[in-house]
Request: fold
Amino acid sequence: MYRALLADARFHELLLGFDRDLAAVARAAGCARCGGVLHSARFRRKPRGGPVGPDEAYDQRLSFCCAVDLCRKRTTPPSFRFLGRKAYLGAVVVLVSAMRQGVRRRGSFPSLWA
Reply:
């Protein structure tokens, strides 16, 4: 089941769409330091564990750079695809963690607040 999800191109397109939505919100907000306009400053990542033969846009981290000369602060919105600076895709890390824990019945997880 998990392998099928990771191999499904629609799942990865959905994650890319979520990232584009987050990037649009961050760009519309402007620079956090000076309020200036943000220009695209995408950078390529080499994600591990992704789909075979993805679109080139999938390997790019959506990021922005302030247009004001003395500011130039970089703004990188959160991502559904990438876990910070890690090399593995976020979905891969989450699914592998779930696979290691195994399937449990509802209510069988230990309570943290007990």
Summary: The chain has a mean pLDDT of 78. The first helix runs from residue 2 to 7. The two ends are 33 Å apart (CA to CA).
